[in-house]
Design a protein that fits this description.
single chain, about 160 residues, alpha+beta, 2 helices, about 30% helix
């Protein structure tokens, strides 16, 4: 998967590009794990709830999920629980990055809305990007995935923001 970026967030363009270039291996590790799992959920179930992965200081990728205590589980209920759990893990553990995968609809300027797997990547060094893997359902069975793209993003989890805890 080729991941490109043009980002400005609390950094000059050159600093942001340098940070992205330096952290690209971390981005790729989490994005690959989450895109693969999300694609599997799509193929097997036709949809998926938000789920996540963390990257430890030792370079290990660990998958993370959350669920409310009731039986009627929706993305709206799961996402805040997942974010809370990730903030706790970042506070208690030696994590360097987190990624959250969601099934979203995205509209790029001048284009039609499209379904996509979104992976929001947040690194403790301040880099936040959203990676998208567009997909569409085949007429008879299965899915077709498009070319991934990356956009600048604002943190949603704020795992390393002391005011978010």
């Amino acid at each position: 998967m080729r991941i490109g970026l043009n980002i400005v967030r609390q950094h000059t363009m050159a600093e942001a590009d340098d940070l992205y270039a330096e952290l690209k291996p971390d981005v790729a590790l989490l994005a690959q794990a989450l895109f693969e799992l999300s694609e599997k959920f799509l193929r097997d179930q036709g949809n998926f709830l938000p789920h996540a992965a963390v990257l430890t200081d030792g370079g290990e990728v660990k998958l993370v999920a959350a669920a409310p205590t009731n039986d009627a589980t929706t993305s709206t209920e799961v996402l805040p629980l997942l974010h809370d759990g990730l903030r706790v893990q970042a506070k208690e553990g030696a994590l360097r990055a987190i990624g959250v995968s969601e099934n979203v609809t995205v509209t790029l300027q001048g284009q039609q809305p499209t379904k996509a797997i979104k992976v929001l990547f947040e690194h403790r060094r301040g880099l936040t990007v959203a990676l998208y893997l567009p997909f569409s359902k085949k007429l008879l069975r299965g899915y077709v995935v498009g070319q991934p793209f990356t956009l600048a993003a604002k943190p949603e989890v704020n795992a390393w923001d002391k005011s978010a805890a």
